[in-house]
Design brief:
Number of strands: 0
Strand content: under 5%
Helix content: over 70%
Largest sheet: none
Oligomer: single chain
Order of helices and strands: HHHHHHHHHH
Structural class: mainly alpha
Number of helices: 10
Distance between the termini: 66 Å
């Protein structure tokens, strides 16, 4: 079997036909191009463009963006639940179903839609750059955004089934909470002071999210669960890395502040 045949087998034949032809999913170039463009803009072009400029305020845009994120993430959660989560699907081992029926296409299409929203999440970093908040463009921030897009892309392409959709169901739920916090904090320093006690809880919520998703992903690794083990294994490794990064951030940001006070 030649290289072309190997590529076609693993990239096209192994992919789920319900999602592989959806925008961006089937191409081996477009999403990597988006990721490299994102890194170029936020690490090189953006800082150079802002070097001799005053930071943009963007208050109205930030408020609208946060409202958009709250609504769109709540919609994704609603779509997953209406597709059968917590009524027909559980957090335990769920066998993969691939028929072309409305019931079993809603999960794949919602996964695709959620993946597109993860690309829109890059706007948050662009806002940091335009407001000259370069200290917020950290390795943690970049890794989290990029790894989320990559995992979402491959899940949507290869295993867009109920069991693998749990990650985005929980992630989008957390994003509703997170962007609600960001929305209120955009209304000035007085509101920010009221919200400050809850700020550490936001990071803790992220870490709890990773633990919950890891526990659910681990179900796929059980010998009695007859599903492919590769997606769950990759996802768990990524979740561990994210957890460590968020834990280190929490320790440095909040625990050190408590010691100083």
């Amino acid at each position: 079997m030649g290289l072309v045949d190997v590529y076609d087998f693993y990239w096209n034949q192994k992919a789920d036909s319900r999602t592989n032809n959806l925008p961006l999913i089937g191409s081996p170039v477009l999403i990597p191009f988006c990721l490299f463009s994102y890194l170029y803009v936020v690490l090189k072009w953006g800082p150079e463009y802002m070097k001799n400029r005053k930071p943009y305020k963007l208050k109205t845009f930030v408020v609208c963006y946060n409202m958009f994120q709250i609504v769109i993430n709540a919609y994704i959660v609603q779509q997953f639940i209406s597709a059968g989560w917590f009524s027909e699907f559980s957090v335990f081992c769920e066998m993969s179903d691939y028929p072309y029926t409305t019931k079993f296409t809603k999960i794949p299409y919602t996964l695709w839609f959620a993946t597109m929203i993860k690309l829109i999440d890059f706007v948050e970093t662009f806002i940091f750059v335009l407001r000259k908040k370069d200290n917020q463009v950290t390795f943690l921030h970049l890794y989290h955004h990029i790894s989320t897009v990559l995992i979402s892309w491959f899940v949507t392409k290869y295993v867009p089934v109920a069991m693998s959709s749990f990650t985005l169901l929980i992630n989008c739920s957390v994003h509703v909470i997170m962007y609600s916090y960001y929305l209120f904090s955009a209304f000035g320093k007085n509101i920010q002071k009221l919200l400050n006690p809850f700020k550490p809880l936001l990071t803790l919520t992220q870490m709890v999210q990773f633990i919950i998703i890891m526990m659910q992903n681990a179900q796929s690794l059980r010998p009695s669960c007859h599903v492919t083990k590769i997606p769950g294994s990759i996802s768990i490794i990524n979740l561990i890395i994210n957890f460590i990064l968020f834990y280190n951030f929490y320790q440095k940001r909040y625990k050190s502040d408590q010691k100083k006070s």
